[in-house]
């Protein structure tokens, strides 16, 4: 019985060391990415008062986040890449729709040059 317990303990220790090692390697890379890619080049195709939610979905895909602002639907597209060893690269697009599902306004921000 003692050998089975000792063997299990060794396997657990090995698993914990491998897990800690993988966390350490990820930490050494010093970067994290949140969100997902979207076609930022298509932002200028948005037309306030004309572009529909279906057209937005065709241009940019499924939004990363959906929410409400002043009782109206908002969709957010964004990708945020942070690094300990270099500047952050961020892009986000927030689209606000009217009650008929038409683009009411949008905001696009990027840290890329």
SSE ordering: HEHEEEE
Q: Helix tally?
A: 2
Q: Helical content, roughly?
A: 25-40%
Give a short account of the largest sheet. Answer: 5 strands, antiparallel
The coarse silhouette is: elongated
Q: Structural class per helix/strand content?
A: alpha+beta
Low-confidence stretches: none
Q: Strand fraction band?
A: 25-35%
Distance between the termini: 65 Å
Give the beta-strand count: 5
Global mean pLDDT: 84
Question: What does the model show?
Answer:
By secondary structure, the chain is of the alpha+beta class. Helices cover 32% and strands 35% of the residues. It contains two helices and five strands, in the order αβαββββ. It has helices at residues 2-29, 53-60; strands at 31-35, 65-69, 72-83, 89-97, 103-110. Strands 1, 2, 3, 4 and 5 form a five-stranded antiparallel beta sheet that branches. The longest helix has 28 residues, at 2-29. The protein is elongated. The termini are far apart. The model has no long low-confidence stretch (mean pLDDT 84).
Reconstruct the topology from this structure.
Elements: H1 2-29, E1 31-35, H2 53-60, E2 65-69, E3 72-83, E4 89-97, E5 103-110
Antiparallel strand pairs: 1-3, 2-3, 3-4, 4-5
Briefly characterize the structure:
The protein has 113 residues and is α+β, with helices and mostly antiparallel strands.
């Amino acid at each position: 019985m003692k050998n089975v317990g000792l063997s299990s303990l060794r396997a657990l220790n090995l698993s914990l060391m491998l897990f800690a090692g993988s966390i350490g390697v990820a930490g050494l890379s010093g970067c994290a990415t949140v969100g997902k890619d979207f076609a930022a080049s298509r932002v200028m195709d948005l037309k306030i008062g004309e572009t529909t939610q279906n057209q937005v979905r065709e241009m940019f895909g499924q939004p990363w986040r959906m929410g409400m602002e002043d009782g109206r639907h908002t969709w957010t597209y964004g990708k945020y890449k942070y690094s300990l060893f270099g500047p952050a690269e961020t892009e986000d697009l927030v689209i606000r729709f009217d009650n008929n599902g038409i683009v009411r306004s949008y905001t696009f921000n990027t840290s890329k040059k």
